[in-house]
UniProtKB/TrEMBL annotation:
Protein name: Uncharacterized protein
Subcellular location: Cell membrane
Keywords for this protein: Cell membrane, Membrane, Transmembrane, Transmembrane helix
Organism listed in the record: Paraphotobacterium marinum
Transmembrane segments: 7-28, 34-54, 61-80, 86-106
4Fe-4S keyword on record: no
Amino acid sequence: MFTFKTFILFFATAIAEIIGCYLPYLWLNENKSIYLLIPAALSLILFSWLLTLHPTDAGRIYAAYGGVYVCTAILWMWLIENIKPTSWDIAGGFIVLIGVSVILYGSQH
């Protein structure tokens, strides 16, 4: 069952994945320190471990997680990169969350 706890776990997993990918981006594209690869690797290890804690079939979890990831990435873009989401970004995020709901709700029947 999809609960608030599951959503928080999805969100934490998405944050770990985004950090794990964003730090190498900073190194490669923004000329930041190569030492950013260390926390990036640790974050991706955390991401992998968090995926194992999700409560149902792996394929279904990955599909539903993908939707939460999209919305988390939009928030990241806004809050960390200071790029305001467009109305299309927001609409797309809602559409993806509807898809997540269909996948998770449908799996209960």
